[in-house]
Specification:
Number of helices: 3
Shape: elongated
Helix content: over 70%
Number of strands: 0
Number of domains: 1
Largest sheet: none
Length: 62
């Protein structure tokens, strides 16, 4: 279970990085898909909150 949590956390961090890259690019995707980008930003915020909670739990368990 612990290993699965680490893998999931790494995947979440990768997703957040990809969203950041998308936000920085001024491509047709970001301009044409503004609602999608807003949704990705909300998802990113939730993922980041989740990562913080997981790290806090891990720290408290040690």
């Amino acid at each position: 279970m612990h290993m699965e949590g680490q893998v999931f956390t790494q995947q979440v961090e990768d997703i957040c990085e990809q969203i950041e890259e998308l936000k920085k690019e001024s491509t047709h995707f970001t301009t044409r898909n503004e609602p999608t980008m807003k949704l990705l930003e909300v998802a990113q915020a939730h993922y980041q909150k989740f990562i913080k909670l997981i790290r806090r739990k891990k720290k408290n368990d040690e």
